[in-house]
Design a protein that fits this description.
Layout (H helix, E strand, L loop, with lengths): L12 H47 L2 H11 L9 E5 L10 E14 L3 E14 L3
Antiparallel strand pairs: 1-2, 2-3
Helix pairs in contact: 1-2
Length: about 130
């Protein structure tokens, strides 16, 4: 006599597994994208600080250094940039440095999770005189 095998019905199991895992993968993908965008903004802030410090070290002009920072951070909202500059002084020594500190508010926005506000900061120091 032949043995009868009972077939189990697995139809729909893959759909249930997908329904359980897909939201996690989608949120992970959105998180990776949000982090990448925030990291890009951090690089822009750091570059703006470096350009401002370099310009301040060479020209010792606050207006030129601020303009260099705004030009380097052209993808950011200029009204939200906070720039603090330290000049070399009228007769800089070899050890004197020009410093630029820039801060920028940023909100990591992840769909279905919400937003997380942080302050991105960039700091650069250059020796005076170029």
């Amino acid at each position: 006599m032949a043995k009868l095998r009972r077939r189990t019905n697995d139809s729909g199991a893959a759909a249930v597994e997908l329904a359980l895992i897909l939201p996690i993968f989608v949120m992970l993908a959105f998180g990776i994208i949000a982090f990448g965008l925030g990291y890009n903004q951090q690089l822009v802030v750091t570059r703006a600080a470096r350009e401002a410090a370099r310009t301040m070290a060479v020209t010792d002009s606050v207006a030129s250094a601020r303009a260099a920072a705004f030009n380097a951070a052209d993808s950011l909202d200029p009204g939200s940039l906070s720039i603090s500059l330290t000049s070399c002084g009228p007769t800089p020594d070899l050890d004197d440095v020009a410093t630029a500190d820039i801060s920028y508010p940023y909100a990591y926005e992840i769909p279905f999770v919400g937003s997380y506000n942080v302050t991105l900061q960039g700091r650069a120091t250059m020796h005076c005189g170029g």
